[in-house]
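Entry 12.
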Amino acid sequence: MSIQKDKVALIEYTLTNQHGEELDASNGNPLAYLHGHHNLIPGLEAELEGKSVGDKFKATIPADQAYGERVDALVQTVPSSMFQGVEELEIGMRFEAQSEQGMHSVEITHIEDEQVTVDGNHPLAGEALTFDVEVVGLRDSTEEEIEHGHAHGEGGHHH
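Predicted 3D structure (tokens):
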């Protein structure tokens, strides 16, 4: 059996950036994902296609196949009065912001007087990411999983 659309695969992985710093790892708690439903970044899903249990590989995914290139338009400067109810604004704070595209996460990158610069790019936008992956499980999905578009059960976090 190999990984293809509508199969649920369990993967152990370590994610590093181009400087070799570890950003994330499954650490014995494999990620279960439903293949072919955009639950992983496109470049990683492409690498996993056709793999079987026991396969190990290392792949470097360019930014445009990962979280996308950085988009300057997503960096905005707004008055600090927009952050009502936040006592202390600090660089690095993340907020959920409402936009025409729905909810997205922004990070404060600069504060000057009453002006706050927020960056709506994904923290890993513009980065090539290296995944060290081992396929540890593979099964057919359930109808419910297909309907919902993601795997149920093991491994609750998404990438």
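Annotation: The helical segments are 42-48, 143-148. The first helix runs from residue 42 to 48.
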